[in-house]
């Protein structure tokens, strides 16, 4: 007996292949599940929060100081394993790869709930620029203990997260001129015309201190927080016809 006809988009009876329509339907169903899965993960992550709190939002390290301390507190209800290191601006830098000229004591420790720990930052006196501030990043990674409770064993899909917090460390050489608090007011702005008809907004910081811009007023906010290093310039591109007037909110570091 001849095999059944395969017209109409159907496959041979007894074949391991599935009809194309079924494959397309399955693919559409999977695509529709992706946003739901992403939403579920987002909602779960929104309920999580770090237990280790750093006192302050930045660290100033005057060159004349032998060391600077940073206070950490565990405001959670479980002990945390804490690892600390510095990097030079690359968030992907591992502790073993850091070339920042500082030693942190202790670099790894346990912090019990409702307890505190002081970190000691010690400058190793490797050469750094003496005419402006240098910027580094302090990393604090907290790893929660494994949940061995009955509820955790009943829910094998429970997700535990490790949190990392990064704050800036400013190394301030001795003898810098001016005041750090006046740095933001001295930043100048200008629009520079480009050959393709567009413009760039150029910020120039003539001071030896770092200035951070948290807000760029008008219709075109900055995509992210931007920092102007001492003595540096930064440009932001504008298309032809975009509004030229602007305001900026800035502060030291």
What's this model, at a glance?
This protein has 253 residues and is mainly β. It is built from two helices and 15 strands.
Question: Explain this structure to me?
Answer:
With 253 residues, the protein is mostly beta strands. It has helices spanning 20-46, 150-154, and strands at 52-54, 58-62, 68-74, 80-87, 102-105, 108-111, 116-123, 134-143, 163-172, 188-193, 199-204, 211-216, 226-228, 233-238, 248-252. The strands form four sheets. Strands 2-9-8-4-6 form a five-stranded mixed sheet, with no helix packed on it. Strand 10 and strand 11 form a beta hairpin. Mean pLDDT is 77; it is low at 1-19, 220-227 and 238-247.
- Sheet having the most strands: 5 strands, mixed
Mean pLDDT: 77
Share of helix, binned: 10-25%
Number of continuous helical runs: 2
Number of strands: 15
How is the quaternary structure best described?
single chain
Order of helices and strands: HEEEEEEEEHEEEEEEE
Shape: globular
In order across it, which strands form the biggest sheet?
2-9-8-4-6
Beta fraction: 35-45%
Low-confidence stretches: 1-19, 220-227, 238-247
Radius of gyration: 27 Å
Could you tell me how far the N terminus lies from the C terminus, measured between alpha carbons in angstroms? 84 Å
Structural class, by secondary structure, is mainly beta
Topology:
Blueprint (H helix, E strand, L loop, with lengths): L19 H27 L5 E3 L3 E5 L5 E7 L5 E8 L14 E4 L2 E4 L4 E8 L10 E10 L6 H5 L8 E10 L15 E6 L5 E6 L6 E6 L9 E3 L4 E6 L9 E5 L1
